[in-house]
Amino acid sequence: MKKLILTIFASSFLLSCSTNSSNEESNSSSGSGMLPKTSTSGSKTTTYNYNGNKIVNILSSDGGSATFTYNGEFIIAENSVINNGVSGLYNSTSTMNYSNNLLSSYAQNGGFTNYSDSDTINKTYTYNQDGSITENVNIIHTNSLGNTTITVNKYIRFYSQGNCIKAEAYGPVNGIMTLTDTRTYTYDTNNNSCKNITGLYAYYHPIGVANNNNIISETNKNANGVITKTIQRVYQYNSQNYPISMAETITNYSPNPQTGTSTPGTPTVSNTTLTYY
Fold first, then answer.
1. How far apart are CA 8 and CA 15, in angstroms?
2. How far is 146 from 39, CA to CA, in rounded Å?
3. CB–CB of 36/194 below 8 Å?
């Protein structure tokens, strides 16, 4: 089952979007500053449209899109279309609830145009005393025969200076939620490209997507602490310290259970450019 939970935001240059404040509970933007206009990676160009500093929609040249609904300064609904190649378009509708200016729950319903499969996704968030955020995820997948599969996962994300620095993924093993994957991140000190988009921080920050700065490295390890993937990013910045280009190198590793080590594969490199309003 393909778990297409995130929208087009998490699939391109804007992987680590944020608002303008280093306060992790901040939600509103200053109403000034740069806003992303286009991002281009390979043959794919994505365009971002606004009403003031509120994001209205995101349109991709491959047919993908995301449209947002606000209540005040909070994003409360999103309708998205993701082009998934042979599987066709994945259409989904999401709704968000907030409590004390923090995202408390998320619900999504979606399915593919070329298949009768569908997904119902529900998430709840707990804000822990140490500053970490726990995300509990319940996914119900219904196939073309009407059979359902339920998947339960948990994520705990740790933050420093408004950035997600570590994410732990847990899944059921013999009925017990067990650590399956750990990801650690490092950041630059420059402006994030989505710094001034109203409501984006409150919506995306609990899932580790909205951060104050830009991710420069990511290391993935399995439950045994063996590296399975690394990502390195090198940015170019404009005169106001916003990123205008990114070179990303992804290396997948093949773990060896006998030695507890892993062997890197051939790195893949992609380049993305960004323009602003």
1. 9
2. 39
3. yes
Where are the chain's structural domains? 8-276
Region of residue 251 (left: phi > 0; alpha: psi -120 to 50; beta: else): beta
CA-nearest of 98, 91, 92, 48 to 201 is: 98
DSSP per position, 17-62: ---S-SSTT-----S-S--EEEEEETTEEEEEEEETTEEEEEEETT
Task: Give CA–CA dist 255/232, Å, rounded.
Answer: 20
Model pLDDT, residue 32 = 56
Burial zone of 15 (CB within 10 Å; 0-12 exposed, 13-18 middle, 19+ buried): buried
Q: Per the confidence metrics, is the pTM higher than 0.90? A: no
Q: Which of 13-17, 56-60, 99-103, 179-183 has the lowest mean pLDDT?
A: 13-17
The token duo for 43 is 């043959």
Q: Decide: 224 and 260 in contact? Cβ < 8 Å.
A: yes
CA distance linking residue 70 with residue 72, whole number of Å: 6
Question: Residue 257: helix, strand or coil by DSSP?
Answer: coil
pLDDT digit string, tens, across residues 174-221 = 989 999 999 999 999 999 999 899 999 999 889 888 889 999 999 999
Interatomic CA distance for residues 90 and 112, integer angstroms: 4
Cβ contact 252:262 at 8 Å: no
Question: 147 Cβ partners below 8 Å, 6+ apart?
Answer: none
Fold topology of 8-276: Porin (2.40.160)
16 within 8 A of 32, measured Cβ to Cβ: no
